[in-house]
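re: ur question from the group chat, yeah i did fold both. here u go
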Amino acid sequence: MFPLRAPLLLALRRHVRLPRVVAWLDRARDSLQWTDDRLAHRDELTTLLRAAIGVVWLPPDERRLRAAVDGRVVLVTGASSGIGRATACRLAAAGATVLLVARRRDRLDAVRAEILRAGGAAHVYQADLADASAVELLVRRVLVDHGHVDVVVSNAGKSARRPREARADRQPDLARTMNVNYLGPVRLLLGLLPAMRARGRGQVVNVGTVGVDLPMPYWSAYLAAKAAFESWLRAVSAEARADGVTTTTIRFPLVRTAMSARTRFLRWLPGMAPAEAADAVCRAIVRRPRLMSPWWARLGSFLFTVARGPRDDFGWSSAVAVRRG
């Protein structure tokens, strides 16, 4: 509201000549500027507090982000919505040429149009990571069009939350969960990593989950797939780092996306916005750590380990029993 009023007052100030009115407009403009400064300061303090308690990560320095991605080719999977969309727009604004990958062409076109309107560069590649032949074709098209990829943001994912016994007749669903979260990203990187290693530089950012540290009931298929890809990437990192290719896994807590919105109880938990998750991805690109995980997730994982015993589920069994009532 305030940023819209300040330019209006400035425009009036230029055309009004009565001294008293001019003085009033000047005071009003100064008051609004003071209010804007207070709001910006409050937002900054709120971000710092949320970062301190492990809900979000601080955004990177804009100059360092631009230096890291300006003129580079960045491929983002799952770019049609949520974290992928926010990340693609943020990187394009910093000067990257963004390759948008997802299943839904209409949504990819909308993201590309948004980036182009803002003065960025983006290309659309429709592909389903669960389809091995589609991934192979995607790799060929990308390498023909661009020659290489500097950064891969592996963000596409599929969640599957249901009791174990309810999955007995849902084998196709289980297979798709594994393909989208594990086998698809592996196939994609197997096609793109050779060019990275040959050029002596490259980066992979994996959008993971704190569920790898803190496994929850009903999410076994999803967490198994995410853990499998994280383990694979960690092993590949040991091989590729000598060739200048680095990898980062970000174990995200709850991010409010369309995927998480389907689970009712998650609506009551604190979470970050997709734009804040995009800040974390950009921070990973700038700093290149091997792992980013909230401090409370690492602490919880440690407590989970030391508390193992006859009841090694850290209390989840009781919660499930109460739920079944």
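okk and heres the other one u asked abt
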Amino acid sequence: MFYFRAVYKKADIYLLDDPLSAVDVKVGKHLFEKCIRNYLKEKACILITHQVHYLSEVDHIVLMDNGNIIIEGSYQDIQASIFDFAKVLGPLKGTTIENESETNNINNDGAESRLVPSQCGSNESILSSKFKALTQKPNEKPEYQSYKYESKNVLISYITACGSTYNIFWGFFMCIVILALIVGGDFWLSFWVNQEVYTFNNPKNTFDNSTSEPHESSNLLLWLNNYHEYYVIIYSLFMVALIISVIIRSAIFVKITMKASINLHNRMFNSIIRTTMFFFNTNSSGNIMNRFSKDLGAVDEILPDIFLDTLQIFMFICGTVIIIGLTNIYLLIPSFIVSIIIYKLRAYYFYTSQNVNRLEASSKFHSYSIYTFIHL
């Protein structure tokens, strides 16, 4: 794909990093004769290759090793020299001939036989293989391989990317206010229901047998029973305050998540434009595009909803535990056991889901790479 793009570019100078190694012998010969020698004959063409049987058809040859020029000149000059090319090119390890039977049919007799290394042919370019051999880390893992990371650090990084701590503080404060309003509304509704039950079971004119006076403990309930509208008003105030608080919290949350998305994108972009070439040689363009498209798309669209749902569920659980503790403290024991079980199940699910998403991302970056080659 790079080869076709370079030819269609119609440039004055072409640098071809071993494009013939990616095809078989017949196709490579066709490309060399029809494209390099014919179509690009009036252009300055620099061909990097290990296929030495093409050297007799080039104008100038430069042999380099570890960044140093060993010898250069025309094919006739190299033939006349006494330099041992097999000794220099022979140490290239890990190479295989893609079609050995066809390659062996090429005539390499006479002085040309001294130009053929003991092992030739490669599915990778010389520059890329040399660079990878020098720079690749031994413990480097493929993209799709599973690994664990500290989710707490990721959460802290996302929170710090939200920007001002002032907005973060008010966001959490509004969550606490909403929790208090929900718990308060539930308590008031419970009190209202208990009062109605008491009124139904105990008429107003019930007197104590010894004093012939109403029960003093029920004076407040009897007074509230005469004012049913106060129950409705107070409960309505709880609901109105809850709705307003939810709207305020949602507005703050949208502002925080948008700021986090912008900051994360800016960090990634600034890191990309300031990184070294080692990063681009060890990470494909499709993988980089996948990070900017799929991952940032998840940060913009999926993560805010999940984060808000998680926060709401956490607050709901806290409110439920508080109500259970105030109602019957002994019920906290099974609640604690259930919480431990849920946490363990969450850990198993999170690890599996992370690996599945990573496999999905690794299977897509090849498509992104092809898309990049075609449209760039």
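fwiw on the second one: The two ends are 11 Å apart (CA to CA). Residues 79 and 111 are 6 Å apart (CA to CA). idk if thats what u expected
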